[in-house]
Specification:
There is one protein chain. This protein has about 140 residues and is of the alpha+beta class. The chain has one domain: Hotdog Thioesterase (Thiol Ester Dehydrase, Chain A, Roll). The chain contains 3 helices and 7 strands; from the N terminus they run E-H-H-E-E-E-E-E-E-H. Strands 1, 2, 3, 4, 5, 6 and 7 form a 7-stranded antiparallel sheet that branches.
């Protein structure tokens, strides 16, 4: 499993008239977590694009449990629980301290700059293998 944590401070512009974070911002935070994960395993997204490759979002879900508000300090937890083959699946948890605010998931595939689906490059899979850790017990999270 790969697990990364991104730190987010909720900006005023991310809130709505109800003084809570507008729902689409969670997807932006999920992307922030993915970019951090790629950096941490040694494959910056810019390197992927420089090779003429893309990682488009194929599916995205979000479930909102409690609101986030202006100036909250949040943690966005990203989990890759299964090693990818053709598709990548990420799971997310948005937390404010010990409180779970939202969960979500995205799936992605590799494609060339013309939109043709591809298998992930071997170097990419090797870096995922190098970063992979045995999955922790559910009670540890």
């Amino acid at each position: 499993m790969i697990h990364t944590i991104s730190q987010i401070r909720v900006r005023y512009a991310e809130t709505d008239r109800m003084d809570v974070v507008y729902h689409s911002n969670y997807l932006v935070w999920f992307e922030t977590a993915r970019i951090l994960m790629l950096d941490e395993i040694g494959i910056p997204y810019l390197e992927i694009e420089a090779r003429g490759l893309r990682l488009p979002v194929l599916t995205a879900t979000a479930e909102y449990k409690r609101p986030a508000r202006f100036d909250d300090r949040l943690e966005i937890h990203l989990f890759m629980r299964e090693k990818p083959r053709a598709r990548f699946r990420f799971e997310y948890e948005v937390r404010h301290g010990d409180t779970l605010l939202a969960t979500g998931s995205t799936s992605h595939g590799f494609m060339d700059k013309h939109g043709k689906g591809l298998r992930p490059p071997e170097e990419f899979l090797a870096k995922i293998d190098a970063a992979w850790k045995p999955q922790a017990a559910a009670t540890e999270l």
